[in-house]
């Protein structure tokens, strides 16, 4: 089992640019920056989770993703988290304000000011960060955050974040690190670029895509017709490839979970073990299975 370290400060912020850069990045730097397929996948997972909780999609942010991208590289290369500091810390190896977050009395400003120090983003930032001793994946990072109350509240604007209105989200993954940044100010730098094919996505692309109602539900062998009424699916895993999801369904059925099926939504193949017409029934079963399936969650369709 993967073991991870989740660090969440009470008041958080945003990361940086190129480790050797001085001052704010030029517009060209943000235009050339790109997001990987895995980073887009994590961004999508978080927003699908919010949609299932009847919350709005958070626009993707080029600036915040760029800052997250640089912060985790600073952590990997320079290890400012050592000596009783934590993963919110910054080294003195770049043109930003360094800090040992756990010891710095000015820690909140160290984090809050990173977007303004390093990009044209005008607001404060809130960071979720973790490190795993193996390569972090979108699903493993998402599951760890979702199963920790404080970070789950941040996803869903609950608890101390109940009054926040997230208007921008940045995501980065690198060498076991995963970082997500939230901001309450719209990102002025516009579209993000995919590293795979240089396609540019608008900040609201996921919202636009969801509005087109492109959902299809299908089973491992035969497509499952959408129900007229709402159903609640207990999701145990997620895959990009249908063949992988089908194999997982076959494995689950071999182990006695005969109702297992594949749910295809947008670009993700999710594996459900049970589904119900009533949320209360789904919640009851989820509680019973939490020790069997790590990260089990409910998706409404």
Concise description?
The protein is of the alpha+beta class. Helices cover 33% and strands 19% of the residues.
Topology:
Layout: E1 4-7, H1 27-32, E2 34-35, H2 37-52, H3 62-78, H4 107-112, H5 114-118, E3 126-132, H6 138-146, H7 149-156, E4 168-174, E5 177-183, E6 192-194, E7 200-201, H8 205-211, E8 232-239, H9 242-254, E9 261-265, E10 268-276, H10 279-289, E11 297-300
Parallel strand pairs: 2-6
Antiparallel strand pairs: 1-3, 3-5, 4-5, 6-7, 8-10, 8-11, 9-10
Question: In words, what does this structure look like?
Answer:
The protein is an alpha+beta fold. The protein has two domains: 4-211, 3-Layer(aba) Sandwich (Pathogenesis-related Protein p14a), CATH 3.40.33; 232-300, Alpha-Beta Plaits, CATH 3.30.70.1070. 33% of the residues lie in helices and 19% in strands. It is built from ten helices and eleven strands. A four-stranded antiparallel sheet has the order 1-3-5-4, with helices on both faces. A four-stranded antiparallel sheet has the order 9-10-8-11. α2 (37-52) packs parallel to α6. It is globular and about 55 Å long. The model is unreliable at 7-23 and 213-226 (pLDDT under 50).
Essential attributes:
2 domains, Pathogenesis-related Protein p14a, single chain, four-stranded antiparallel β-sheet, 301 residues, 33% helix, Alpha-Beta Plaits, globular
Total count of strands:
11
Rg, alpha carbons: 20 Å
CATH topology of the largest domain: Pathogenesis-related Protein p14a
In which range does the helix fraction lie? 25-40%
Which structural class is indicated by helix and strand composition? alpha+beta
N- to C-terminal distance: 30 Å
H/E element string?
EHEHHHHEHHEEEEHEHEEHE
Tally of separate domains: 2
Uncertain residue segments: 7-23, 213-226
What overall form do the CA principal axes indicate?
globular
The major beta sheet can be summarized as:
4 strands, antiparallel
Q: In the CATH classification, which architecture of the largest domain applies?
A: 3-Layer(aba) Sandwich
Q: What is the CATH class of the largest domain?
A: Alpha Beta
What is the percentage of strand-forming residues?
15-25%
Number of helices: 10
Looking across the biggest beta sheet, what order are the strands in?
A: 1-3-5-4
The CATH H-level superfamily of the largest domain is CAP
Overall mean pLDDT stands at: 80
